[in-house]
Amino acid sequence: MTEFDKQRILVTGGAGFLGSHLCERLIEDGNDVICLDNFFTGSKTNIRHLLNNDKFELLRHDVTFPIYLEVDKIYNLACPASPVHYQKNPVQTTKTSVQGAINMLGLAKRVGARIFQASTSEVYGDPEVHPQHENYWGKVNPIGPRSCYDEGKRCAETLFFSYNRMFDLEIKVARIFNTYGPKMHPNDGRVVSNFIVQALKGNPITIYGNGEQTRSFCYVSDLIQGFLDLMDKSNNFVGPLNLGNPNEFKISELAEKIRSLIGTKTKIIFKKIPIDDPQQRKPDISLAKSLIDWKPSTDIEDGLKMTIDYFDAVLAAK
Ligand code: NAD
Ligand code: UDP
Predict the structure, then answer these.
(1) Which CATH number fits the domain that encloses residue 98?
(2) What pLDDT does 306 receive?
(3) CA-closest residue to ligand 2 atom 21
(4) Does residue 306 lie in a domain region?
(5) Is 163 a residue of the active site?
(6) Phi, psi of 207 (to 5 degrees)
(7) Residue 123 lies in a domain
(8) pTM recorded for the entire structure
(9) Rounded distance, CA 166 to CA 27, Å?
(10) Which of 41, 154, 182, 272 could form a disulfide with 310 if both were Cys (CB 3.0 to 4.6 A apart)?
């Protein structure tokens, strides 16, 4: 690749869990990356190893404010993803999703960039259809504690499709299902990081509710490959596209798996289930398979082992 064919790519939320993996992969592939983040949930540790790379540039900025940059592609990931974090300041969460989308779409329109939106399985809410296919419109409580995120992300999808219809903007909307792996924040509050950190510290594992609710967990490198394939290999397809691993588990099964992989007898305790916690979630990924020939390849046990090793090193360094 010569200096002149290089792509300049903006990653918003680039210091977060998914964003930092994406920045790393885009640089490996020879691109110039601008990582934009306000460090609400992201961390410099995630991108420290990239700071001296001349293909990488870091901007501290909040997507709710406009910004003028010259780029070829945008991946819009800025938004807290853990229920604990997105409920901390629900007004800011909705603003980040909606005003952030408006600003990034405006930027994409001005420079003619293709733009990717990190949407979510939460647009399906507490689904009545199982597994969830892209045609399902969802069952979301518009006024509950999760609505700041769910409705913010739904509105962002609306904005993306409106910009596509009105201005022919090249959009790519991915609906991401639960993803895990190294670089999740140890206090992130999501289930995989919580259970692993609790078990490694010998603290009780906290199951919310009776543990019968299900999720389907995708390893981070599989997901990032899906981002790139959707962005670069899907021709005129604009989305939405489910990206996730259809391997469905009860939360109680996940707790057992993590206990046995770590080899601990740490006890399991049950806490109140959060309001509007979805009961069942599993992606139908037939569209991703047929459209971009994408499916996850990392087995849950291998993915969990790599994640456990990561948290083990993080806790040892403290
Ligand atoms: P994360 O919290 O680790 O990363 C989000 C990043 O966005 C952080 O670095 C944070 O500091 C930054 N950010 C938040 N508000 C911002 C703002 N106003 N301006 C600039 N930066 C801001 O979460 P993640 O898991 O990496 O998720 C990334 C994206 O993927 C999010 O949009 C999330 O909704 C979406 N997503 C993730 C999952 C998952 O399982 N990880 C599932 C569905 C959707
Ligand atoms: N959960 C749990 N214990 C925890 C954290 C989460 O039992 O310490 C449950 C949570 O109630 C939900 C599932 O695990 O049913 C996934 O939660 P997470 O916050 O990871 O993401 P969600 O899919 O709900 O956005």
Answers:
(1) 3.40.50.720
(2) 98
(3) 190
(4) no
(5) no
(6) -95, 130
(7) yes
(8) 0.98
(9) 33
(10) 182
Find the catalytic residue in 75, 86, 124, 149. 149
Name the one residue in this structure whose structure tokens are 């979510």: 120
Q: What pLDDT was estimated at residue 123?
A: 98
pLDDT of residue 318: 78
Q: How far apart are CA 164 and CA 298, in angstroms?
A: 34
CB 23 within 8 A of CB 49: no
Q: Structural domain tally of the chain?
A: 1
Q: Give 196 Cα–ligand 1 centroid separation in angstroms.
A: 20
Per-residue model confidence (pLDDT) at position 3: 65
State the distance from the centre of ligand 2 to the C-alpha of 290, rounded, in angstroms.
30
In angstroms, rounded to a whole number, what is the distance separating the alpha carbons of residues 47 and 183? 10
CA of 97 to the centre of ligand 1 (A): 10
Between CA 316 and CA 314 the distance in angstroms is 6
Residue ranges making up the domain that contains 47? 8-183+218-246+282-297
What would you report as the CA-atom Rg of the chain, rounded to the nearest whole angstrom? 19
b/e map 105-123, b = 16+ CB within 10 Å: bebbeebebbbbbbbbbbb
The tokens of 207 are what?
Answer: 């199951």
Strands 248-250 and 214-216: what pairing?
Answer: antiparallel
Q: Which two tokens stand for residue 50?
A: 């990239």
List, chain by chain if needed, residues with CB within 6 Å of any ligand 1 atom. 12-13, 15-19, 37-42, 62-64, 77-81, 96, 100, 118, 120, 176, 178-179
Q: Is residue 251 part of a domain?
A: no
> What's the CA-to-centroid distance between 153 and ligand 1, angstroms?
12
Calculate ∠ Cα 297-298-304, nearest 5°.
Answer: 165
Structure confidence at residue 187 (pLDDT): 92
Q: Which atom of ligand 2 is nearest to the CA of 84?
A: 19
CB hemisphere CA count around 69 (13 angstroms): 26
How confident is the chain (318 residues) per 10-residue block, as mean pLDDT? 78 98 97 98 97 98 98 98 96 98 98 98 97 98 98 98 98 98 95 98 97 98 98 96 97 97 96 96 98 98 98 93
Residue 256 lies in a domain: no
